[in-house]
Fold this sequence. Notes:
Radius of gyration: 12 Å
Distance between the termini: 25 Å
Shape: elongated
Helix content: 55-70%
Order of helices and strands: HHHH
Amino acid sequence: MEFKNIEIEKYCGNIQERIQSCRNRNIAEMLKDRMCMELGVECRDNETINRLRNYVDEIILQTFDKSGMNKKLEN
């Protein structure tokens, strides 16, 4: 999955890497909220913020199992 938006990447960095480094879904959700809040300060375009939110939701679905643990990190 690839997401290219210069404005979002400028303020949020490597989104996929940041989400995939979270140990559990709760932390990833908090990070998503934080990134959206920070982007909202710099970019008042709701469409851009919604695209970020949807993109992060997809990464979360791929990264965490049903119990909320990161499938990609070692135990």
